[in-house]
Amino acid sequence: MNLFKLFFSFLSIGVVSFGGGYSILKVMMHELIDVRGWISLEEFLDISAISQSTPGPIGLNAATFVGYKVGGLWGSLIATFSVVLAPFLLSYFVGSYIFKRRNEGVLSYMLIGLRPITVALIAGAAFTFAPLVLKTPVQAVIAILSFLLLFVFKVDPIILLISCGLLGLLLKL
Question: What is the mean pLDDT of the chain?
Answer without folding.
Answer: 87
